[in-house]
Amino acid sequence: MPKSIMRAIVLAAATVMAGGVAYAVEPVKVAQTDKGDALVDGKGMTLYIFDKDSDGKSACYDKCATNWPPLAAGDDAAGAGDYTIVVRDGGAKQWAYKGKPLYTWVKDAKPGDTTGDGVMGVWHIAKP
């Protein structure tokens, strides 16, 4: 069975077990890129992690966050499993995978682009 179908079944079961309330537990998908499997946002844009972040804390603000927009989480978002919520300075919420905050890259023009991988030696594709 393809991973995407299996993942959909697991999420549906989790929704039922949560009393029918749909939580945004997995805000991302896995997609094939020219650099292998990568986590992508709802629009198919590649997600990245930043080496200067510590688990559960973003170090990317100001110009950094302009170039590397954080993957925003809604106020009512609740993580589970490998997906958690990081509270940024100022109170905004951001999705994280295995404790690492997730970002997109402004220079990726279309789904599947991976131009942010390796930037300054500290930005890397978020891998499942």
Task: Please outline the helices and strands.
Layout: H1 3-17, E1 29-33, E2 36-40, E3 48-50, H2 63-67, E4 72-73, E5 83-87, E6 93-97, E7 100-101, E8 123-125
Antiparallel strand pairs: 1-2, 3-8, 4-6, 5-6, 6-7
Describe what this molecule looks like in 3D.
This protein has 128 residues and is of the alpha+beta class. The chain has one domain. The chain is built from 2 helices and 8 strands, in the order αβββαβββββ. Strand 1 (29-33) and strand 2 (36-40) form a beta hairpin. The relative contact order is 0.23.
The low-pLDDT segments are: 4-24
Largest sheet: 4 strands, antiparallel
Which overall shape is indicated by the principal axes computed on the Cα atoms? Answer: globular
Roughly how many Å is the radius of gyration? 15 Å
Structural class: alpha+beta
Key phrases:
single chain, 128 residues, alpha+beta, 4-stranded antiparallel sheet, 8 strands, 23% strand
What is this entry, summarized?
The protein has 128 residues and is an alpha+beta fold.
